[in-house]
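Hey all, quick one. A colleague (J.T.) asked me to put the inosine-5'-diphosphate job into the tracker so the inputs and the structure tokens live in one place instead of scattered across chat threads. No bug as far as I know, just bookkeeping. Sequence used:
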Amino acid sequence: MTEQTFFMIKPDAVERGLVGEILRRAENKGLQIVALDMRTITREFAEAHYAEHQGKDFYEPLIEFVTRGPLVCGVFESVNAVAAWRQICGETDPVHSAQPGSIRGDYCLITRENAVHGSDCAETARAEISNWFPDFPLK
Ligand code: IDP
Ligand code: MG
């Protein structure tokens, strides 16, 4: 089923010049870029995006990290877009869980600075797309 997912290329990956490489991998997989923007988000916006993690030990450093510079955000559309993007991102912990061949497995060393974000299910995708791109026509 064709679906849409929200993605971020986090500040660490933007700083390292990996935007093109990451988008290339997504497009090679078959994910179509249907929205794309570079922006630096406020603490308030980051807190809303990561509300589910509030209170966890990694929460504060995570908010500091995602607000420290520009990130790239957008929407991918394809068959199975949510799972396909999560698959090529790899598991959250880039060394102990993510497979080589995934973005996190190939480019990252620590869990916080793991280069990419992807919505974890179709319902989250709709919520995240609406939050980041209020005018975007949801499917
Ligand atoms: P996900 O990005 O793979 O969906 P989540 O569990 O939703 O992973 O965590 C959101 C983000 O918070 C992660 O991508 C990572 O940047 C950060 N994070 C998660 N767990 C840890 C941790 O144990 N230590 C440091 N940062 C973490
Ligand atoms: Mg998550």
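Adding what we noticed when we looked at it: The longest strand covers residues 71-79. The chain has seven helices and four strands.
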